Amino acid sequence: MQTAGQATQQEKRQRIGRQGEDIAVAMLTDLGWEIMARNWRCTAGELDVIARDCDGTVVFCEVKTRSGLGFGAPLEAITHRKSQKLRQLTAVWLANHPAPKVRIDAIGVLLGGPEPVISHVRGI
């Protein structure tokens, strides 16, 4: 059973995560990318953002957001295990949506300053 404080912390993490995803989607849209899906779910898990970049590549974006550096930089949260899970989820999506060119990217969003700091690593 969760206490009120635990629920509040979980809600805060979810709000920060949503804010980071919104910032990442705005950045991708500004680059001219088409957002195909957000928070795509299957029984194996969730893909944060699926987009098509300007050359037609379907890009699966993992977005990590932090409100500060107390737990490390946002992209440090993408472990080897997480990248394996991303490849697995990508394969599930591709089974129903074939695409000739695909890539997995990571986007880190650091909040807490006057402007968010965004890191975009292509092809993780």
Walk across the major sheet and give the strand order. Answer: 1-2-3-4-5
Shape: globular
> What ranges have pLDDT less than 50 throughout 5 or more consecutive residues?
none
Radius of gyration: 15 Å
Number of strands: 5
Give the DSSP E fraction (strand runs of 2 or more residues). 25-35%
Number of helices: 2
Overall tally of structural domains: 1
CATH architecture: 3-Layer(aba) Sandwich
Report the mean per-residue pLDDT as an integer.
94
Which class of secondary structure composition applies to the elements?
Answer: alpha+beta
Q: So what's the CATH class?
A: Alpha Beta
Q: Which bin fits the share of residues in helices?
A: 25-40%
CATH topology: Trna Endonuclease, Chain: A, domain 1
Please outline the major beta sheet.
5 strands, mixed
Which series of helices and strands comes N to C? HEEEHEE
Q: How many angstroms separate the termini?
A: 37 Å
Describe this structure in words.
There is one protein chain. The chain has 124 residues and is α+β, with helices and mostly antiparallel strands. The protein has one domain (4-121): Trna Endonuclease, Chain: A, domain 1, CATH 3.40.1350.10. 35% of the residues lie in helices and 32% in strands. It contains two helices and five strands. The mean pLDDT is 94.
